[in-house]
Amino acid sequence: MSEDSPGGRNKGGGKYQGGDKPRPYISRNLGADKPNVGAGLTPARQISAAQQTSPALEIPPAQQTSPALFNSAQQSFPAHVNPAQQTFLEGLHQLGVKLTEQQLNQFLQYRQELLDWNTRINLTAISDPDEVLLKHFLDSLSLLLVYDAHHARLLDIGAGAGFPGLPLKIVRPHWQVVLLEATGKKVRFLQHMIEALQLKDVEAVHGRAEELAHKARYRASFDVVTARAVASLSTLLEYAAPFCRIGGQIILPKKGELAEELAQGKRAAKQVGTGFKADIPVSLPGLEDGRRLLVWEQVSTCPEQFPRSGGVMAKKPLGLP
């Protein structure tokens, strides 16, 4: 597997656990005029122009280094936007995300650097620029369907080229983000992107989850833990649970048939102090291919023996019948 300002951390205080926005999957007493979708979820929030805390994207022609993707004044798509870009923007709209000029430029620079570095080191199998918008950026932002607090401390285990951690950091600049990655070349790319995009309160850590989880600085200190890596749910939960504070969330993107894997994951969750909360289908435009977000809550302290070494996990996985 590949991995503070005090004001950015949420220690579970306040009205809601896990942030200053109630978690949709456990919301109670919703009014009849607020229909639920999926497993008791409210739809992705919509933000009116009056509620925006940062200026909407509208780049004067003289300042444009690349075509503007969205005309905020007209709330319409310019004619030169291609279908993939329009799909990306429609997905952002469903998530309640409106990009500022700076955020748009950060995404465009991120995409360019990713594709450039990918010619030299293996960062992604996706080489089409439009596919990067959907399969990497929008897919990463889909986590906002289930967690969207104003402040949060997030850990991305096995961050690779930065997904989902960096796109989330771009649109939620108040979040503190730690990108944990075991491959040195990928860590160097992440460090380069953090500097190039001038991001604050984000660090790329070169290390392995089974080692860092036993360090006091990282253990039980995150509001949200996620891992986009390809591994079984039982393995991912054993890696993630030790990092998650009580009341925090573990969000694991998956796709495909999961009945047997999910059953084993639920059994493994009990061993690491975690409870299963929701199975959320991702139905954002361009991502209608069976993607799901499996949401877990850390309900008790993870026992000290976890995570075990990678070799032990492979030989004796948690959650077997």
Secondary structure: elements and pairs:
Blueprint: H1 83-95, H2 101-117, H3 129-141, E1 153-157, H4 165-171, E2 176-181, H5 184-196, E3 202-206, H6 209-212, E4 222-227, H7 233-240, E5 244-255, H8 259-271, E6 274-281, E7 291-298, H9 310-315
Parallel strand pairs: 1-2, 1-4, 2-3, 4-5
Antiparallel strand pairs: 5-7, 6-7
Helix pairs in contact: 1-3, 2-3, 3-4, 7-8
Structural write-up:
With 321 residues, the chain is α/β, with parallel strands linked by helices. The chain has one domain (84-315): 3-Layer(aba) Sandwich (Rossmann fold). The chain is built from nine helices and seven strands; from the N terminus they run H-H-H-E-H-E-H-E-H-E-H-E-H-E-E-H. It has helices at 83-95, 101-117, 129-141, 165-171, 184-196, 209-212, 233-240, 259-271, 310-315, and strands spanning 153-157, 176-181, 202-206, 222-227, 244-255, 274-281, 291-298. The chain has a seven-stranded mixed sheet with strand order 3-2-1-4-5-7-6, sandwiched between helices. Helix 5 links the parallel strand 2 (176-181) and strand 3 (202-206). Helix 2 (101-117) crosses helix 3, helix 3 packs across helix 4 (165-171) and helix 7 (233-240) packs parallel to helix 8 (259-271). Residues 1-68 and 70-77 have low confidence and may be disordered.
